[in-house]
Amino acid sequence: LHPVKPMNTTATKIASSSLGTATIISENLINETAMKKYNPSDPAFAYAQLTHDELIQLVLKQKETISKKEFQVRELEDYIDNLLVRVMEETPNILRVPAQVGKKAGKM
C-alpha cells in the first residue's frame, strides 16, 4: 500500500469550479436538446419556450376558463330542462312528430 498525498487546496477549488461549469454546460445542452425536439409547426413549440412559472400561470388561467365554461353549460342545461318541462306541460303537441307512412323508426 502506498500513502495517499492530500490534494492541494487550489487544485480542489479548480476541480470544484470546473465541475460546476460542467454541470451548467450539461444543463444548457439538455435544455437546448429539449427545445430542439419541437418543430416550429408543432403546437408544443410555443410552450417549449415558456418558463416553469409561466406554464403554471397558463394552466391556472385555463383551469379558471374551463370552470367558467362548465358553469355556463350547467346553466344552459338547466334552462333547457325547464323549458322542455314547460313545453311538455303547456303544449305537448309541439313535441309530437307525425308518423310518416313508408318510413321506419330510426331511419332517415
Automatic annotation (TrEMBL):
Chain ranges of the FIP-RBD domain: 36-98
Primary localization class, coarse: other
Gene Ontology annotations of biological process type: protein transport; regulated exocytosis
Gene3D superfamilies documented for this protein: 1.20.5.2440
Protein transport listed as a keyword: yes
One family name in Pfam for this protein: RBD-FIP
UniProt cross-references to InterPro entries, sorted A to Z: FIP-RBD_C_sf, FIP_classI, Rab-bd_FIP-RBD
GO cellular component, one term: endosome
Keywords, sorted A to Z: Endosome, Phosphoprotein, Protein transport, Transport
Molecular function terms, GO-annotated: small GTPase binding
Compartments where located: Endosome
PANTHER family, per the entry: RAB11 FAMILY-INTERACTING PROTEIN 1, RAB11-RELATED
Name recorded for this polypeptide: RAB11 family-interacting protein 1 (Class I)
Organism, as annotated: Neovison vison (American mink)
